[in-house]
Amino acid sequence: MIHIVKPGETLFAISEDYRTSFSSLLAANPGIDPNVIIVGQPINIPGLPSPSTIPYTIHISLSNRTLTLQENGIIQKVYPIGVGRMLHETPVGDFIIVNRAPNPGGPFGSMWLSLSKKSYGIHGTNDPASIGQYVSLGCVRMHNHDVNELAQFVPNGTAVYIRP
């Protein structure tokens, strides 16, 4: 999978966002100077398939508080979600699912799907009444049965598009 460097990013931050070791990232990008990366530069992320090879995409509307699963551009299902509250907004942008953890416990419910932005994910909840609200610290909350269903469809590498 290829990541395009954005303003303010460092190679170390990119390694953290994709949950891959810094040394693995260097090895996957021979000849790169880790101290000099430029906006627009492609960085190979080892161990993840290209999102273009995956038929699924996830589209999140923060204002509608919905997560839409598409397969080959066709809507398969729309789920209600909870999103970040004031001062802890859910980040807007294009991400991918980089890993997953079933039964993470606590407020994360029955499933955690990590996004390619450190500390953010799509997860279940131990507070179902929070779905449909602006309540989280920036993550996307789903009913446990919904996030479990979603996780059965989408593999790591799935593109996630978060919009206002």
What keywords describe this structure?
globular, cell shape, 164 residues, alpha/beta, Protein erfK/srfK, cell wall biogenesis/degradation, hydrolase, single chain, 8-stranded mixed β-sheet, Membrane-bound Lytic Murein Transglycosylase D, Chain A, 3 helices, 2 domains, L,D-transpeptidase catalytic domain-like, peptidoglycan L,D-transpeptidase activity
Would you give an account of this structure?
One of its GO terms (cellular component) is extracellular region. It comes from Halalkalibacter akibai (strain ATCC 43226 / DSM 21942 / CIP 109018 / JCM 9157 / 1139). Keywords: Cell shape, Cell wall biogenesis/degradation, Glycosyltransferase, Hydrolase, Peptidoglycan synthesis, Transferase. This is Protein erfK/srfK. Pathway: Cell wall biogenesis; peptidoglycan biosynthesis. With 164 residues, this protein is an alpha/beta fold. It has 2 domains: 43 residues, Membrane-bound Lytic Murein Transglycosylase D, Chain A (Roll), CATH 3.10.350; 113 residues, L,D-transpeptidase catalytic domain-like (Beta Barrel). It is built from 3 helices and 12 strands. The strands form 3 sheets. The protein has an 8-stranded mixed β-sheet with strand order 5-4-3-12-7-8-9-11, with helices on one face. Strands 1-2 form a two-stranded antiparallel ribbon. Strands 6-10 form a two-stranded parallel sheet. The longest helix is centred in the C-terminal third of the chain and has 10 residues. The chain is globular.
